[in-house]
Amino acid sequence: MTDTQVVIAGAGPTGLMLACELRLAGVDVLVLERLTERRTVESRAGGLHIRTMETLDQRGLLDRFLERGRPRQGVHFSGLPLDVSDMRTRHPYLLFILQSEVERLLEERAAEAGARLRRGAEVAGFTQDDEGVTVELADGSRVRAGYLVGCDGGRSTVRRLAGIEFPGTPATMTALLGDVELAEPPADDIFQERREHGSFSVLSFGPDWYRVLTSEFDHVADRDEPVTLETLRAALIKIAGTDFGMHSPRWLSRHGDAARQAARYREGRVLLAGDAAHIHFPAGGQGLNTGMQDAVNLGWKLAAVVHGRSPDLLLDTYQAERHPVAARVLQNTRAQTALWRVDEHTSALREVLGDLIGIDEVRLRLAAMITATDVRYPMEGTDDLLGRRIPDLDLGHGRVHELLHRARAALLDLGGLPPLDAVVTGWADRVDLVRARPAEGSDLGADAVLIRPDGHVAWVARAGERPDLDALRTALTTWLGPAGPHDAQVRLRPASTRYDSSGTTA
Fold first, then answer.
1. Model-wide pTM > 0.85
2. Which has the closest alpha carbon to 200: 185, 215, 179, 184?
3. How many whole angstroms from its chain centre is CA 127?
4. For residues 182 and 29, what is the distance between their CA atoms, to the nearest angstrom?
C-alpha cells in the first residue's frame, strides 16, 4: 500500500517542474519541502534561456512567464556578449525573471494539476525494496511511494542517503552576491568589469534594486561563513574602488566555483535531478535551466514506468541523456570562471576569444551551448534530426509546440504517408497522429517525424524517401513501450487543435 506514486524531495524549480510533468501524465505526486514558506526574498537565479522557454511553450505555460519577465539580450560567455537575435527560435533572448517568481508560477501550475505540496517536511532517511520506497521524515512520520526523486539541492540529503558519490573539482575562488539598493549605480543595466583585485558585476533588477556580484581569486572562503553587507561592501570597494552607495540588502550569499556531478542519477527507485545531480559556478545562468530540463526529460519516462506502459529500463535513458548535458555545463562553467581571472595572460585570452566571437559560427556555437538549443540525445540512426529538439514549425493554423501541450508523443505526417495509420494503431493510447502541411518557409525536409513528449525527434522519414516503418516500430517500442491491442482507434488530430495548460481542448 502506497501513499503516493512518486515523492519529490524539494520544491525548487526542478522539483516543481517535475511535479507538473508527472501530473500531466496522471501520476499521483507528493512534493516534500523542508522550508515552511516559499522563498520570496532570495532571488537566486535570474533568467530563463531559449530551450527552457521552448519547453514551457510545449506545455502551454510560457505566457505566464512572459507576463512576469522581461526579454533581454543577456546571453554571454564569461561576460563576453553573445547576440542570439538570429537564432532559429521564436524566443531569441534571455527572459529575465527571478527564481522566486519561477517557483511561484510552477507551484501555482502544480496545484492546478493536482500535485500535493507538504511544507516543513524534511527527509531524514529512506529504505527501498522491490515494490517501492519508504521515506522517513524528520518529524517521525513516514511516506510510502513507488519512487523517490531528490530535487533537494547541491547538499542533497537524498543523494547522500542513497550513497551516490559526488566527484568533481573544489572551489578555487570566492564570489559574493547581494541584492541591494544603490544610491550611485552605474549607467548601464548590465555592468561588468575585471580589475586588478578581481571582477564585479552590477545588474539592474528594477527601480533602485540591483544585483551586485564580486569574484576574488586570491582566497577560498568557508562556504558556511556568514555574509554581511559590510563583507560585500569591503569586497566591492577592494575590486571596484566604490560601493556605489550600497544599502538596504534584500539577500546576501556566498558561493565558489566548485563543480561536481553525481556519479549516477539513479539508485534503484531513487533518482536525482537538478542541483542534487550537478553543481557549478553560476556562469551564464545555466543551473536553473538545466534542472528544469532534467525534469522534462525524466517526467514522461517515470510516468510511463509508473503506469506500467514501459519497462523499468526506460529510466536508464534519463542518465544516458542528461548526464553528458550536465557534464558539459560543468566544463563550460569551469572555462568561464578561468576567463574571469584578472592576470595579463587571461586578459590576452579574453581578447582573442572576443575577436573569435565576431565570427558568426563561433558566436552561434557558444550561444547554442549556453542556451541548450544544441542538445542532441543519442538515438539509433544517422539522420541529423534524430535526438534534436523539434523546431516550432508553423503548420497552417497551428504550431508544432501546440501538439505537445498534454505531454503525449506526436507522429507528425507532413507528406501524407498512408502506412502510418496501420503502424501506429498499437500505440494509439500514447501517440497522436497529426497530418499537416508546413506553412511556407517552415519546411523540415521530412515527410514525417516521431516527436517524443519532451519535444525531441525519435524517428524521421525524409522527403521523397521510402519510410522505414520497421525503424518507426522500434522507436515507438523504445520510447513508448510495447504495442497494445490493435483494435484501438488511432487518434487523428488536426494541427489546429489547441489545448490549455491542463490538456483540455481550448
1. yes
2. 215
3. 29
4. 43
Q: Is 482 helix (H, G, I), strand (E, B) or coil?
A: coil
Report the alpha-carbon distance of residue 406 to residue 402 in Å, rounded: 9
198: which strand partners?
195
Domains in the chain, ordered, with CATH? 4-66+94-168+260-340 (3.50.50.60), 174-255 (3.30.70.2450), 394-494 (3.40.30.120)
Residue type (1 letter), 396: G
Provide φ and ψ at 144, rounded to 5°: -105, 130
The residue behind cell 519512487 is: 147
CB count in 10 Å sphere of residue 266: 19
51 burial level (CB within 10 Å; 0-12, 13-18, 19+) = buried
Q: How many CB atoms lie within 10 A of CB 317?
A: 17
Amino acid type, 335: A
By C-alpha distance, which of 118, 145, 147, 108 is closest to 17? 108
Identify whether the C-beta of residue 173 lies closer than 8 Å to the C-beta of residue 214: no
Torsion of CA 265, 271, 276, 279, to 10 degrees: 20
Contact 189, 204 (CB under 8 A): yes
Q: 173: which 3 cell numbers? A: 575562488
pLDDT tens sequence across 29-76: 999 999 988 876 665 677 999 999 999 999 999 999 999 999 988 799
